[in-house]
Amino acid sequence: MAQKRLYKSRDNRMISGVMGGIAEYFNVDATLVRVLYCLFSFFSAAFPGIVVYIILALVIPERPSQTRRDSHDEWSEY
């Protein structure tokens, strides 16, 4: 069984895709993750939340691009 990996989202991003990637990893709505992050940042005087976001943006890798099959490959079987 393959281990689930955390990546920044390519599709669901507002700034760098960190919150979208966390939402995809836990299979929850990205808006909920963003709201919780904003609440966390607000109640911690904002500074630690910004630092955590910057660190996550640097540490979490970008999701690898999906390689699409060439259209010629689909017809090669016929």
UniProtKB/TrEMBL annotation:
<dbReference type="InterPro" id="IPR007168">
    <property type="entry name" value="Phageshock_PspC_N"/>
</dbReference>
<keyword id="KW-1133">Transmembrane helix</keyword>
<keyword id="KW-1003">Cell membrane</keyword>
<protein>
    <submittedName>
        <fullName>Stress-responsive transcriptional regulator</fullName>
    </submittedName>
</protein>
<keyword id="KW-0472">Membrane</keyword>
<feature type="transmembrane region" description="Helical">
    <location>
        <begin position="34"/>
        <end position="60"/>
    </location>
</feature>
<feature type="domain" description="Phage shock protein PspC N-terminal">
    <location>
        <begin position="4"/>
        <end position="62"/>
    </location>
</feature>
<dbReference type="GO" id="GO:0005886">
    <property type="term" value="C:plasma membrane"/>
</dbReference>
<dbReference type="InterPro" id="IPR052027">
    <property type="entry name" value="PspC"/>
</dbReference>
<keyword id="KW-0812">Transmembrane</keyword>
<dbReference type="Pfam" id="PF04024">
    <property type="entry name" value="PspC"/>
</dbReference>
